[in-house]
């Protein structure tokens, strides 16, 4: 095979404090030439990267590694990496053959050498089948981190509580995790009243089209008032932390449950992440459950149960694949930034190769 151009996205420097990640300042797109026939694999595989996920947690990785966190830091001067889907081009590993589709934690580049024998919660390479009717990019969205996170948190902490609950509030409702969760809950608990928030009218309209009972714009509406009028809240799915979590705490029912999934509000503005009403947790006997994707035995079990329980719902269209596509690695930085500005309407994905976007 000929020498080809390998586009790559290098991490350059950390945003300082609460600074918003800026593609041109904190990363750069570069190109190199590689010969896909001769590039050394050392027992590994050569992957043509097809699609890559853009996730809010990547901002947590933009830091020095002296701060212990749940995810590995990005290293200045090295390639950015994240959950991806690709196709095997060459293999020195008997488990993989050319043409196999794989998901894993691959670098932001067109052609990625995945070494043999590296496996941990982040570094992995797993063969996947092509699912009819769905693009391969769905493996980094509804079939990947977003869908599995919604299912895991709900199965572990929401499902049982929902049997005796009337009202669920979801902040960040129109995002990748939020929309999967809404459709899952609509299927499993059609009588549960759902309140959900988002930051634009287009997203509010989406929430309404999904059958949410009360949708509000957290930037314009008074969340405390909306929840007071439509609560009390039995279950709060927290994608944001900050002011919306305070509003939920002020309106949580006795013995309410909070499922702490994410805290995007404070990622780019520390002040916006502040929660003040912790006293409601003891005053109202609230149970707060935090969880991380594929961390711990229960979470790992849910990860695998997803295949049997949720993939059929996705194939039937009961849970939809909604993507906001950024085409080409040149636009990877825009994708990484979009989840913090709210530009993404659906799961933010980078389509690295056209095959990644084909159904
Ligand atoms: N626990 C886990 O293992 C796990 C796994 C995956 C994701 N998560 C978390 O789940 C949450 C949702 O992730 P996702 O992948 O579905 O992302 P997403 O919702 O598709 O994208 C992020 C959205 O967050 C909203 N946002 C940005 N800044 C905000 C702020 N200051 N206050 C409130 N909302 C803000 C924006 O929507 P608006 O236009 O509505 O503002 C943006 O579109 C994130 O907190 C993420 O870190 C957790």
UniProtKB/TrEMBL annotation:
Residues 26-350 form the Enoyl reductase (ER) domain. Gene3D superfamilies: Medium-chain alcohol dehydrogenases, catalytic domain, NAD(P)-binding Rossmann-like Domain. Keywords: Oxidoreductase. It comes from the Eukaryota. InterPro entries: ADH-like_C (IPR013149), ADH_N_2 (IPR041694), ER (IPR020843), GroES-like_sf (IPR011032), MDR_fam (IPR045010), NAD(P)-bd_dom_sf (IPR036291). The keyword Ribosomal protein does not apply. GO terms for molecular function: oxidoreductase activity, acting on the CH-CH group of donors, NAD or NADP as acceptor. It holds the Pfam family ADH_N_2. This is Enoyl reductase (ER) domain-containing protein. It comes from Cerrena zonata.
